[in-house]
Amino acid sequence: VTRATEHPVLDDDLLAALSHELRTPVANIMGYAELLTTDGPDLDPDTRRMLQAIRRNADRQAHVLENLTVLADIRCGWLPPGTDRVDLAEVLAALPGQLGEALAHWDVGLEIDTAHAAPGVRGDAAQLRHALAELVLAMAGRTEAGGVVSVVAEARPGSALVTIASPSSGPDSRGLHGVGVAVALAVLDGHGGRVTVGRGGAGVQVELPAG
Amino acid sequence: VTITVLAVDDTADSRDLLRTILGRAGFAVLTAATGREALAMAGEADAVLLDVSLPDMSGIEVCRLLRERPTTAETPLLLVSGYATVGDVRIGLDAGADGYLAKPYSAAQLVAQLRHLLAGPGAAAATTATAAATASGLAGFGGAFRAWTRRHRPARSA
After folding, report:
1. Secondary structure of chain A in the HEC alphabet?
2. Inter-chain CB proximity A78 and B17 less than 8 Å
């Protein structure tokens, strides 16, 4: 079982400062690239391709910054987990739309099986969607091109289990890592969840109290 | 009638970006690099985009001072800042800002939020996304964009 709170990467002030200091330069890179890309059909294909690469990479940086900020928000208690009844099948059904572009870029497929999902859990749907998306992204990031990440939701006595696995992922002795994973662990920890990270294709299991 | 927007940011590249985005969207643009300049020019603007990190005083302080003045008390004011935690946003909205847009932002989003603030209470449909975001505190979760809108102001005649 991995608990995010046992592995503080940075203290809250440094986290917030890092996020703040990087946001302005990333904003300018994204903004100018967006303006240039929307200049229209006058761009030659090479320039367009390079601008799209700049935008795609700036978007990734922005995504990391967002995760740093969310982590700071969670640690400071500004993002309580909430008590809504959340339909996990619905949360998981949103993943393809949310992650489609990133997965397509990596040429990784996504299979979701919610046929035996638990009826519901308690918490904040947006936070849970984000946490599970980050775990899928982390798994996809170590999956070979052409591979598939599978997400299987199952009901267990008193709990809801979600297994995210990738049979074609390479062995990685470090397990899952990164800012997105840290956010996922912090969110799931706040929701009373347990996260078990296996090696290689064994994947990651998320267990949340049924509610 | 052309709407004039004052864009306040201490970084030259950021000011130029705002000037370009707003100019392309059909706004007349004034720019300021300091809090003092912003206070001197705000009376000429129909709306203010205000950075929080300024060299001479905080944008939060500029916001409070603008709200105390009769001439700018009702001017639509959007904080555009690299400070992005929920706590930062609360401070900004408590100081009297109408909205808060965290950097990095998309040009389309900036213009949409500015137009929404200028439109006033009639633009309820446009608030759905930001209202939902405010409720969870997670604007654009996963999409990298954070935007909040506090309240509606009367529609501007321009």
Report:
1. CCCHHHCCCCCHHHHHHHHHHHHHHHHHHHHHHHHHHCCCCCCCHHHHHHHHHHHHHHHHHHHHHHHHHHHHHHHCCCCCCCCEEECHHHHHHCHHHHHHHHHHHHCCEEEEEEEECCCCEEECHHHHHHHHHHHHHHHHHCECCCCEEEEEEEEECCEEEEEEECCCECCCCCCCCCHHHHHHHHHHHHCCCEEEECCHHHCEEEEEEEC
2. no
| Residue of B51, B138, B145, B148 best to disrupt the A interface, most CBs of A under 10 A | B138
Q: Is the model more confident about A5 or about B98?
A: B98
pTM of the model: 0.80
pLDDT digits (tens, 9 = 90+) for B80-101: 999 988 888 889 999 999 999 9
Does the structure's ipTM exceed the value 0.85? Answer: no
